């Protein structure tokens, strides 16, 4: 069909330059696409009426329908280059009607077919729809995309998915090179932004009736996958046919008797899909696309265009406009009386219907994105040609003054100017449309990405008016991290609690991280809590209890020492080696007092004195016990006639035993302090929620050497006392020493595992308790029986009783 422009512009100059527009229709016209024709007519009307642009030149245009068919497209393209209505290649007798440029169709395939022929004649093509995918053969084709490039849409799609946290998606594309390029580009981007897909399905384009069954089977498969999956967001990349397939998809259950229940779905469509401009607008349901999101081309509000469209009248313009009658009938679902051919009752078109009353899916009174691209295309060509026609050095060479002989040169110059204009257009932006049953408010500053005001969103009833969820796995809350399921995409994961000592503070963290050294995780492991400083103090029950016990045993020891000093000349005190008893009591006294070094905040001095003081005084105590036992054994051995042991009886032996044994322990302690002395330290690890102030032993080996040497002395004392247990009772305390050494060894054998298993201040408490228990065992086992006799049974504390007991 030809929308004749001669009737519109006949009053202008006889010098004409023509542009051509391809439109697209399938098996029935698309009412909304009629605005594309009006946008071109409006732009050319404005230019022809503007004396500032191309004066003395008149632009006209032809419009051809490609019918979405390659053969028809090639034929129409050849008509551009031939005389009107005479298809003779390379021959045109209309020397005043020069083809200046072609505005391509909606689909990339149509534009590519047109470029195949136009490139031979170097005629530029401006594309207001999808740009063809270039290859080696088509790399030199001369066409210019009048819409923003696809990468802008790709960025918008990713931003939209991330904003609504739709990370588990399905992908539907056409089965063509354009869609393959889309997948190759977007799949890595999706993976990088942690968006994964449950499936990818390609839709074969319907070509003839033989392919209908195959398309039906494909539709069944896609319907089952879409409605049966846990994916609620689908990205659709394609062109106008994709929308027809999508709306046909909702009839699959009734055709194939499928019982899978339909669900609410968010369709995210690229601008090429043409959401509202599809065939069978009135007879097909739009339920399946409720809540769809579609990117659209940038547009502008032109009040003059709105008035121009409103003035369209099918009665007055029928002879001038070959499209308006068909459009009017399709838009208002009526028929003109002169076209009634049957007796079936139909609504009659009056021509007075109001275009403003039509819903947006049928027709929009304001300029749409594609119409605005056509409008800009016409002005781009006009300005390019105007720049050439007004240049000083080219003015005399203009072909229009010489009957169009330099038309090819004009075209080449137009191409050069269009290359600059095309660069500016490619820097434009994309918009996100407000669609069926979903009300959105979008703010997109030029220097920012996609911004959405969520407070103004009203979701469709299919989603229960709440934001749809499209994720493979529920979010991992703080305190958990993600672990990808084996054999599943990376967004399908299990939520694993953070390991001990680690936290995660946000949802869906891939890894947990450790707190700082002076912080520890709370019980939910979602934030770090400051650690408290911990050491054994007098202010807490444990420290206070141990300090009280130490003071109590100190007082008891002082009391026992006082009793022995007061009764130092009594037989029982003398018989049990008075001097060694004093040494033993004083060493136990110092041992109990040394426990106070273990309580309180560790300092440099206290750390140096703790273990060494304890080791020395306890070694003196055990040495004196050993000396007691050896003295008893030697004394009885010396009573035998002719015994040589008499010369060892006396203070010299006991003093040498005590001094020599103590000097060995002193040497060990001096070596310890000189090599690796203890020092104040901070333990951040053993107790997770506390900073433990402690004394670092410096050398663990030397610490266990001190303990080991005391154990060695205790073992010797136990052995000698056990051997001397059957000596006469009046002089013999070996039984008590045996029992006291048994208590001592039992306590310190239990100390080692308890010490190693305890943490923090309880390590110190274990050692204090061991010292108290072993010291109390020595004090009670050795001295309580003697105090009992001295204090409560003084009548037994005389020489006669001792001799009688011996007999």
TrEMBL record:
Metal-binding is among the record's keywords: no
Chain ranges of the G-protein coupled receptors family 3 profile domain: 542-806
Segments traversing the membrane: 542-565, 580-600, 612-636, 657-675, 701-724, 736-756, 768-791
Cellular compartments annotated: Cell membrane
A single Gene Ontology CC term: plasma membrane
InterPro entries tied to this protein: ANF_lig-bd_rcpt (IPR001828), GPCR_3 (IPR000337), GPCR_3_9-Cys_dom (IPR011500), GPCR_3_9-Cys_sf (IPR038550), GPCR_3_C (IPR017978), GPCR_3_Ca_sens_rcpt-rel (IPR000068), GPCR_3_CS (IPR017979), GPCR_3_vmron_rcpt_2 (IPR004073)
UniProt xrefs under CDD domains: 7tmC_V2R_pheromone
GO MF term list: G protein-coupled receptor activity
Membrane topology, record value: Multi-pass membrane protein
Main subcellular location of this protein, as a coarse class: membrane
PROSITE patterns: G_PROTEIN_RECEP_F3_3 (PS00981), G_PROTEIN_RECEP_F3_4 (PS50259)
Keywords in alphabetical order: Cell membrane, G-protein coupled receptor, Glycoprotein, Membrane, Receptor, Signal, Transducer, Transmembrane, Transmembrane helix
PANTHER family according to UniProt: CALCIUM-SENSING RECEPTOR-RELATED, G-PROTEIN COUPLED RECEPTORS FAMILY 3 PROFILE DOMAIN-CONTAINING PROTEIN
Family of this protein: Belongs to the G-protein coupled receptor 3 family.
UniProt name for this protein: G-protein coupled receptors family 3 profile domain-containing protein
The organism of origin for this protein: Pseudonaja textilis
């Amino acid at each position: 069909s030809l929308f004749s422009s001669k009737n519109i512009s006949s009053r202008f100059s006889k010098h004409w330059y023509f542009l051509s527009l391809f439109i697209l229709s399938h098996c029935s016209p698309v009412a909304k696409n009629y605005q594309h024709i009006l946008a071109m007519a409006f732009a050319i009307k404005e230019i022809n009426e503007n004396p500032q642009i191309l004066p003395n030149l008149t632009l006209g245009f032809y419009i051809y329908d490609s019918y979405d068919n390659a053969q028809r497209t090639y034929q129409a393209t050849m008509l551009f280059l031939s005389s009107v209505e005479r298809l003779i290649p390379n021959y045109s007798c209309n020397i005043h009607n020069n083809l200046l440029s072609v505005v391509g169709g909606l689909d990339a395939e149509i534009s590519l077919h047109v470029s195949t022929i136009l490139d031979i004649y170097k005629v530029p093509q401006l594309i207001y729809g999808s740009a063809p995918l270039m290859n080696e053969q088509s790399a030199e084709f001369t066409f210019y995309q009048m819409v923003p490039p696809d990468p802008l849409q790709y960025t918008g799609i990713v931003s939209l998915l991330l904003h609504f946290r739709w990370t588990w998606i399905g992908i539907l594309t056409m089965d063509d090179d354009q869609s393959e390029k889309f997948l190759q580009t977007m799949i890595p981007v999706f993976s990088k932004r942690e968006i994964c897909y449950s499936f990818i399905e390609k839709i074969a384009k319907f070509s003839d009736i033989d392919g209908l069954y195959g398309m039906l089977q494909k539709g069944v498969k896609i319907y089952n996958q879409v409605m049966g999956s846990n994916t609620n967001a689908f990205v659709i990349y394609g062109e106008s046919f994709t929308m027809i397939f999508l709306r046909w998809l909702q009839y699959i259950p009734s055709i194939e008797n499928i019982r899978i229940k339909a669900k609410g779905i968010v369709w995210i469509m690229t601008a090429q899909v043409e959401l509202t401009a599809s065939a069978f607008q009135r007879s097909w349901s739009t339920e399946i696309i409720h809540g769809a999101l579609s990117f659209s081309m940038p547009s502008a509000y032109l009040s003059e265009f709105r008035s121009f469209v409103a003035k369209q009248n099918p009665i007055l313009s029928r002879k001038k406009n070959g499209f308006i009658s068909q459009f009017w009938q399709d838009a208002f679902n009526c028929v003109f009386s002169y076209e009634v051919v049957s007796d079936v009752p139909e609504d009659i078109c009056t021509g007075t219907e109001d275009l403003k009353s039509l819903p947006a899916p049928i027709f929009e009174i304001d300029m749409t994105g594609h119409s605005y691209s056509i409008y800009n295309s016409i002005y781009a060509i006009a300005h390019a040609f105007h720049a050439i026609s007004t240049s000083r050095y080219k003015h005399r060479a203009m072909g229009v003054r010489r009957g169009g002989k330099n038309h090819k040169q004009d075209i080449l110059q137009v191409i050069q100017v269009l290359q600059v204009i095309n660069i500016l257009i490619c820097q434009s932006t994309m918009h996100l449309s407000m669609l069926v049953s979903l009300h959105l408010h979008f703010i997109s500053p030029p220097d920012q990405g996609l911004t959405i005001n969520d407070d103004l969103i009203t979701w469709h009833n299919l989603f229960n008016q709440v934001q749809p969820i499209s994720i493979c796995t529920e979010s991992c809350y703080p305190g958990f991290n993600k672990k990808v399921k084996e054999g599943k995409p990376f967004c399908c994961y299990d939520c694993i609690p953070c390991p001990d000592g680690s936290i995660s503070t946000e949802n869906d963290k891939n890894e947990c991280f450790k707190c700082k050294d002076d912080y520890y995780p709370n019980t939910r492991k979602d934030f770090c809590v400051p650690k408290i400083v911990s050491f054994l103090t007098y202010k807490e029950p444990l420290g206070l209890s141990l300090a009280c016990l130490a003071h109590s045993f100190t007082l008891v020891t002082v009391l026992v020492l006082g009793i022995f000093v007061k009764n130092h000349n009594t037989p029982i005190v003398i018989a049990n080696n008075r001097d060694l008893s004093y040494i033993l009591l004083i060493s136990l006294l110092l041992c109990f007092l040394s426990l106070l070094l273990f309580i309180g905040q560790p300092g440099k001095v206290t750390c140096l004195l703790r273990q060494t003081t304890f080791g020395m005084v306890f070694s003196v105590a055990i040495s004196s016990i050993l000396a007691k036992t050896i003295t008893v054994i030697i004394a009885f051995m010396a009573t035998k006639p002719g015994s040589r042991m008499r010369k060892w009886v006396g203070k010299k032996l006991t003093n040498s035993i005590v001094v020599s044994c103590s000097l060995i322990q002193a040497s060990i302690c001096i070596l310890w302090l000189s090599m690796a002395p203890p020092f104040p330290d901070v333990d951040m690890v053993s107790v997770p929620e506390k900073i433990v102030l402690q004394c670092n032993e410096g050398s663990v080996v030397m610490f266990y050497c001190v303990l080991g040497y005391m154990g060695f002395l205790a073992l010797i004392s136990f052995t000698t006392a056990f051997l001397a247990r059957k000596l006469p009772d009046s002089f013999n305390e070996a039984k008590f020493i045996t029992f006291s050494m048994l208590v001592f060894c039992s306590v310190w054998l239990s100390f080692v595992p308890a010490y190693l298993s305890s943490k923090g201040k309880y390590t110190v408490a274990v050692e204090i308790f061991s010292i108290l228990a072993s010291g109390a065992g020595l004090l009670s086992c050795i001295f309580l029986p003697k105090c009992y006799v001295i204090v409560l049974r003084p009548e037994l504390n005389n020489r006669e009783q001792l001799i009688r007991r011996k007999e």
